[in-house]
Amino acid sequence: MSLVTIILNILLPPLAVFLKHGVGTTLLISIVLTLLAWLPGVIHAFLVNK
Fold first, then answer.
1. pLDDT given for residue 50 in this prediction
2. The Cα angle at residue 38 between residues 12 and 20, in degrees rounded to 5
3. Do residues 17 and 47 make contact, with C-beta atoms less than 8 angstroms apart?
């Protein structure tokens, strides 16, 4: 995982997921989790972008 990916995971989790996986259910889950609360979105982004 590069430094840029780590920074994007923290600041903009859906963007980091989009760059790794494109448009799909993973991105939708990331957007929903980030909108509900920022921390679950960050955790999801780190788990998905291992």
1. 85
2. 35
3. no
Can you tell me the mean pLDDT for 20-40?
95
pLDDT range class, residue 42, cuts 50, 70, 90? very high
Distance CA 2, CA 25 (A): 24
- Quickly list DSSP for 9-43: HHH-HHHHHHHHH-SSHHHHHHHHHHHH-HHHHHH
Range of the domain at 16: 3-48
Mean pLDDT of the chain: 94
What total of structural domains would you count in the chain?
A: 1
Residue 26 in tokens? 């993973």
